[in-house]
């Protein structure tokens, strides 16, 4: 007589985060073994090089199988082949989609096509990252871009729900997607001093204030508010009140600025105000919008650098420049106060971010 026995076989998948990180960084299995051996893993655990190599190879085989699931993160949660706890699943997805700032800076402005994937050697050389690592990030950026570029709503929320990423990482991808959608010029030699973090903060400011980000459930915050860009042309009326504007700013800033900065303000106010207002008046044109960062650099930042403005004085000037214009009747009578505030909110953020002096 036989007794019935219920049997459950568990196949819990163990993931070593250290080995996974080496795989993510693009190390080959032999390079990973060498790195772990140099980190004195064998002394800590008593493991031989052969045992470390066997463990690494086993992990790498597992990672190769998991990668097919990681390209569609929701599948990792739904599948039953690998028994993985939730914190480990989150770690696998987060690290797989992690972005290296140096690599992403090199990818900004490049077309996300399969043809350009073959030309990542230059990206690897300039960023110092292994080619495998560059390819993974290129593929991830292209995958995210294709998945969310035409989704209505908040791009960061769409990325989080589709790829199960943390908010900070989803915001990075959101900035990359936005810059790609807008086709901003980021590759000019003059802009090479700017890091991905600089472009990230500028993109965040533009998305928050210049896009259809608050117009309803069907809005796209990867699409510029065309009505707003057209309204910016009306700001040229400020140039007709240049003397009044300058007088209000000088009265406010004379007790606050360094003497050298104040002299620069008095001497070059016309140059600064025509650059700032002139930039606004042309943003409704696609070419000028795409060249926003190079125009900010050439028309605003380079003259400010020549004037040797300290960043603290520049911040005070931009604040006064915005606030004093709002005190003038010209903007109120033309119903342009909110347009001016939206414009200066972004321009001030971008200028202070890009101003490395």
Automatic annotation (TrEMBL):
Superkingdom classification of source: Eukaryota
One cellular component (GO) term of this entry: nucleus
PANTHER family: ACIDIC FIBROBLAST GROWTH FACTOR INTRACELLULAR BINDING PROTEIN, ACIDIC FIBROBLAST GROWTH FACTOR INTRACELLULAR-BINDING PROTEIN
Protein name: Acidic fibroblast growth factor intracellular-binding protein
Biological source species: Euphydryas editha
């Amino acid at each position: 007589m036989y007794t019935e026995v219920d049997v459950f076989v568990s196949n819990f998948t163990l993931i070593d985060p250290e080995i996974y990180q080496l795989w993510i960084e693009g190390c080959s299995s032999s390079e990973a073994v060498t790195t772990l051996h140099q980190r004195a893993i064998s002394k800590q655990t008593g493991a031989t090089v052969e045992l470390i190599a066997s463990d690494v190879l086993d992990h790498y085989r597992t990672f190769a199988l998991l990668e097919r699931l990681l390209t569609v993160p929701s599948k990792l949660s739904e599948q039953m082949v690998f028994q993985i706890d939730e914190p480990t699943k989150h770690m696998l997805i987060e690290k797989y989609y992690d972005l290296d700032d140096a690599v992403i800076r090199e990818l900004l402005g490049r077309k996300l096509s399969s043809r350009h994937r073959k030309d990542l050697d230059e990206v690897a050389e300039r960023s110092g990252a292994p080619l495998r690592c560059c390819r993974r990030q290129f593929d991830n950026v292209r995958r995210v871009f294709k998945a969310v570029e035409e989704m209505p709503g908040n791009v960061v929320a769409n990325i989080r729900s589709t790829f199960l990423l943390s908010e900070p990482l989803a915001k990075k991808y959101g900035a990359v997607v936005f810059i790609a959608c807008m086709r901003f010029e980021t590759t000019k030699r003059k802009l090479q001093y700017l890091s991905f973090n600089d472009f990230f903060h500028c993109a965040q400011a533009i998305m928050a204030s210049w896009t259809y980000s608050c117009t309803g459930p069907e809005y796209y915050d990867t699409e510029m508010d065309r009505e707003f860009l057209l309204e910016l042309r009306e700001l040229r009326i400020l140039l007709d009140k240049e003397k009044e504007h300058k007088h209000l700013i000088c009265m406010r800033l004379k007790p606050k600025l360094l003497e050298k900065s104040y002299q620069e303000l008095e001497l070059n106010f016309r140059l600064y105000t025509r650059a700032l207002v002139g930039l606004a008046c042309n943003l409704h044109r696609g070419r000028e919008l795409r060249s926003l960062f190079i125009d900010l650099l050439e028309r605003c930042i380079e003259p400010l650098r020549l004037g040797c403005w300290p960043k603290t004085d520049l911040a005070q000037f931009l604040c006064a420049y915005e606030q004093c214009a709002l005190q003038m009747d010209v903007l109120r009578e033309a119903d342009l106060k909110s347009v001016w505030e939206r414009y200066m909110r972004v321009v001030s953020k971008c200028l202070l971010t890009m101003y490395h002096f």
